[in-house]
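Suppose a colleague, Dr. K., hands you the sequence of a protein chain of 94 amino acids and asks what its three-dimensional shape might be. Before reaching for any lab equipment, you can write down a predicted structure in token form. Begin with the sequence itself:
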Amino acid sequence: MSKIHLHKIFYTTLVADDLRRIPFLIGLSRRVMAKIKQNIAISLTLNAAVAACAAFGLLSPTAGALVHNAGSVFVVLNSLFLLNIRDTSDEKQK
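The predicted structure, expressed as tokens, is then:
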């Protein structure tokens, strides 16, 4: 779990003291875990494909390194979608 999401959870639990936010936090933690699993699967698949191509001489070491770094950037960008998750429980109560 990233520091950003830990900050959101700690802020919610320490400042708000609102038990109605627990469903949001459970949903957030499930989404974070799903995103982590998705990113691991993407990373492992990409790295396996690059290693196989490099083993058969289809990819130079430089190109392999570039593809690996591009995959790392993709995983980070994929994780940024988690920042769009908002708690709507406050809006429903107003």
